[in-house]
Amino acid sequence: MSSFDEDELCFPQLLNSSCRKVKLPYFEYLFTYITISFISIVTVILNMLVIISISHFKQLHTPTNLLLLSLAVSDCIVGLFMFFQMDLIDGCWFLGDIACVVYYALGYIITSASIGTMVLISGDRYVAICDPLHYSTKVTVKRANICVCLCWMFSVIVHCLILKDNLQQPGRYNTCVGQCVIVTEYVHVLLDMILSFIIPVTIIVVLYMRVFVVAVSQARAMRSHITSVTIKCSKKGTAKKSEMKAAITLGVVAVVFLICVCPFFCIVLSGQNSMLSATSSVFIITLFYFNSCLNPLIYALFYPWFRKSIKFIWTLKILRADSSNNNIL
User: Fold this and answer.
1) 150: pLDDT confidence band, cut at 50, 70 and 90?
2) Cα torsion for 243, 120, 259, 37, to the nearest 10°?
3) Which residue ranges make up each domain of the chain?
4) 228 pLDDT exceeds 90?
């Protein structure tokens, strides 16, 4: 075999069993590598700022922010996982069969947990806008923590069961050395799509549509100088301006989330992923990952407390004694 042919193999020393590299144009390969690297680094840094801010400052220990913290943790892990995605650009996996299965399993778990957290955020905004008088009693820090833990536990259990065969025997479906493939039965894929995408997205859309209707009704009432307005969802009181702003911000997060993840799940649901070109696959996966980078940017755009906390972190004021009690709102 010529040296040229050996250069096309993932493992040239394994002539008969090595996978072949996917040949991409040099410019396309370089652009993809640089883009994924940049998004990965920015995603990790921005979400670490969110994690540090909410964890450190006591004023930010609210139920809503705890949900944002859960979302930031999953987004930060997604950013770290993008480094492994770069290992698959040329179609070769060099980290072994166990790492391959763990990579996919954690990817599914994190994605499912992120979508579950978005459902919790939608529910939080629904109660805050539609039933503001009972929000503080219905939505507490303790309940938020419990819901987040249950969300992650559910995601871990479901996907460990779905990927049981792959976890028990890593690499069982690989046809050559250097391949990273997992195979699940179609019924399991369909079940995963229903539990991790269709049902959660439906809930998110329905809740935010209801929040939007109530928000518009309250805005009209305020413009008409009506001091009290009866809304079907809430017979008493109206949401505070801060709650309304939070609902708008998190609504933007939800819309951006759906725009970024829907193409990926629609392709998986249609079963046409094998027919996509390498360029199309990279674009859809990159868009899917890019959502994790956008969330902190949305917080920075809409939340003054996030911009203020970044200044504290950047100037190292966060290292001062008792800095956790600083007024950040």
Assistant:
1) very high
2) 100
3) 23-325
4) no
Instruction: Provide the whole-model pTM.
Output: 0.80
**Whole-angstrom Cα distance, residue 61 to residue 53?**
10
Q: Check if the beta carbon of residue 111 is closer than 8 Å to that of residue 180.
A: no
CA 13 to chain centre: 39
Cβ neighbours of residue 10 under 8 Å, at least 6 residues apart? 18, 19, 20, 21, 91, 92, 93, 94, 176, 177, 178
Number of Cβ within 10 Å of residue 236's Cβ equals 11
Q: Which DSSP symbol is given to 177?
A: B
Return the closest-CA partner of residue 76 out of 38, 48, 52: 48
For 178, 279, 325, the CA distances from 89, given in Å and listed in that order, are: 12, 10, 46
From first CA to last CA, the distance across the chain in angstroms is 67
Q: Over the stretch 74-105, which tens digit does the pLDDT of each residue have?
A: 989 888 887 777 666 767 888 888 888 888 88
Closest CA relative to residue 81, chosen from 104, 62, 112, 115: 104
Can you tell me the distance from the alpha carbon of 232 to that of 328, in angstroms, rounded to the nearest whole number?
35
Rounded CA separation 160/154 (Å): 10
pLDDT in tens, 205-224: 888 888 777 766 766 665 56
Q: Which CATH class is domain 23-325?
A: mainly alpha
